[in-house]
Amino acid sequence: MSAASGDGQSGPNQDADRLFELPPELAIDTGIARRVLVDFIRNQLRQAGFSRGLLGLSGGIDSALVAFLTAEAIGPENLLCVLMPYRTSSPESVEHARLVVERLGCESDLVDISAMVDGYFGRDGNPGAGGEAVREAAPLRRGNLMARERMCVLYDRSVAWGGLVVGTGNKTESLIGYTTLFGDSACAFNPIGDLYKSQVRQVAAAIGVPEPIIRKAPSADLWPGQTDEAEAGFTYPELDRLLFWMIDKRRTDDELSAMGFPGPTVERVKRLVATSEFKRQVPPVAKLGPRTTGVDYLYPRRRPGSART
Amino acid sequence: MQPLRIALAQLAPRLGVLEENLARHRELLAQARTAGAGLVVFPELGLTGYQLQDLAAEVAMRKDDPRLLSLASETKGLSAVVSFVEEADDHRLFIAAALLEDGGVRFVHRKLFLPTYGLFDERRFFAAGDRLRTVESRLGVKLGIAICEDFWHLGVPETLALDGAQLLINVSSSPGRDLAAIHEVGLGTAASWRTLMRTYAQLTTSFVIFCNRVGMDETISFWGGSEVIAPSGEAVFTAPLFDEGLYTVDIELGDVRRERIGLPLLRDERPELHLRELRRILAHRTGLEIDEASEPDEGAGTLPPASRTTGRREKRP
After folding, report:
1. Does the complex come out with an ipTM higher than 0.90?
2. CB A182 within 8 A of CB A171
3. Considering the domain boundaries, does residue A79 fall inside one?
4. Band of the pLDDT at B316, cuts 50, 70, 90?
5. Is residue A242 part of a domain?
6. Distance between CA atoms of A77 and A22, rounded to whole angstroms?
7. Total of domains in chain A
8. Tens of pLDDT along A35-89?
9. Does A159 map to a domain?
10. Mutate to test the interface with A, among B55, B179, B212 (most CBs of A within 10 A)
11. Residue A131 is part of a domain; what is its CATH number?
């Protein structure tokens, strides 16, 4: 396996400069990342007694990368990519998702979630199941429901497909809480949850994710024209660098300021990280009994006997 | 002198599945024997997997456990280092490495340093060993056996070498992390370990044999990269990262003598100096200095300021 031979051949990829901006401190050996993540996917499935996986393919880089990694881990014939556009989703998203499916030769399925979402919020002046009160719901609420409807579809399809839902959220969005709880963050396991967006891009380039997907502005595509960077107010390279120094390298506010990070940005990102702590943890349980899950009843998730037989 | 053939069993244990891991050990022992190995080294907790948590008690074996003895019985004419959870008579659980030789359990080392920081939580589940001893081996040299974190403490390789070890064996379950392109081989953990092992081999003028596991427990991936380093500090052999396998390498035990004659670092060690200063440092740390400066009178004024501040008799828990 030359991909992870540690000989430096598979180091920071040369595509970085051409396709995206890469802060040097976030450069990774993509050969090692790829090897570990492919093993991780294979192990997670095998230890749970599954040989198949499925994921929501949005047309963006994160789910495209996970699709490539999963196909490499278990073969494209064992991967189901579900495309779940809403009626206002950008047509380009579906096109890009199809590009990935074609490239991989994996199974795919298209579920238009418009009727599900409109069924709750209503459409064309008619109220839905949510009643009058939700007809004018803000985009955030609509976006959250879309993310959760997609989760519902994935978990339903997982039964018929006989596979586990593979997560597609990256470290950057997880840390700042740019995810919908029990929506896009819901999964059986997540291979890319410890990769910053800038690192996702490197692995995506190395594994052959189509360039238009790597180049385009990241977007949750929850409403037309939405982009992550416009919504957040900083670019991914800026945000990734800040999170890396703040969290991975434990730099203090003063040190971050001396490094040139603007005080207000640091403040804002710290607040985002702190206020989204709840999204990254299992819901707490009040301790009462002698042994409590997650507190003093601590078993590996994949203990002997835990696999589906 | 005949070269010694070492087999590094860079395997991926199944977490908590003792029987399967025992079978795999037997299989690799047989392979190593066929390959002409004299010493077979298995990784830390190779018999149980690493991320055991509350499973630790369920896979623990006493050192006279029939399953361990049965594995040992397959080492006639061989030396093997295997690692498991040892349950003591008083039911403390240890991370242990046993030297199996000529059909029996010759020696057991209990992990001395239990990392409980970062991604590690060993002290929660295990007791720390208290003994650091070398062991006379059928190979004609003394072995110094250590487990993973034991090697992140300078005194361990030094003590083993002073106690006569010529082969320092470290068995590990080192989780790969700190993925960054700036590191040699792209993995911070691997870069650090390589530095340590070369340094220890050179400074103790001993062979360093490192066997690290591969595979994954839960979210953690183990990076392999097992190595044999010569007493000169040069790598004789480096196993691939992440690939499971039984890797053999030949070493000349005579290299230890050659290196120690040419570079008599071990001869020149000053353990008595070390011991004296350690006694002083310990006394100071525990507030039990016994020199007369320990209780200065407020008005004495004849002592240098340093002694006055450090000489105070205080109990510091």
Report:
1. no
2. no
3. yes
4. very low
5. no
6. 33
7. 1
8. 999 999 999 999 899 999 999 999 999 999 999 999 999 999 999 999 999 999 9
9. yes
10. B179
11. 3.40.50.620
CA distance linking residue B140 with residue A19, whole number of Å: 60
- Using a CB-CB distance cutoff of 8 angstroms, which residues of chain B are in contact with residue A301? 218
SS3 A256: helix
- Structural contact between residues A28 and B186, judged by C-beta atoms closer than 8 angstroms: yes
CB contact under 8 A, B54 and A298: yes
List pLDDT tens digits, range A20-34.
Answer: 999 999 999 999 999
User: For residue A153, is it within any domain?
Assistant: yes
Find chain B residues with C-beta within 8 A of A198's C-beta: none
Q: Which residues from A are below 8 Å from B180, CB to CB? A: 25, 27-29
The verdict on a CB contact (< 8 Å) between A40 and B190 is no
- Per the structure, the complete domain to which residue A100 belongs is given by 12-224
Q: Which domains are delineated in chain B? A: 4-268 (3.60.110.10), 271-310 (no CATH)
Nearest partner of A194 among A37, A55, A71, A4, judged by Cα: A37
Could you tell me the pTM of the whole model?
Answer: 0.89
Greater model confidence, A262 or A47: A262
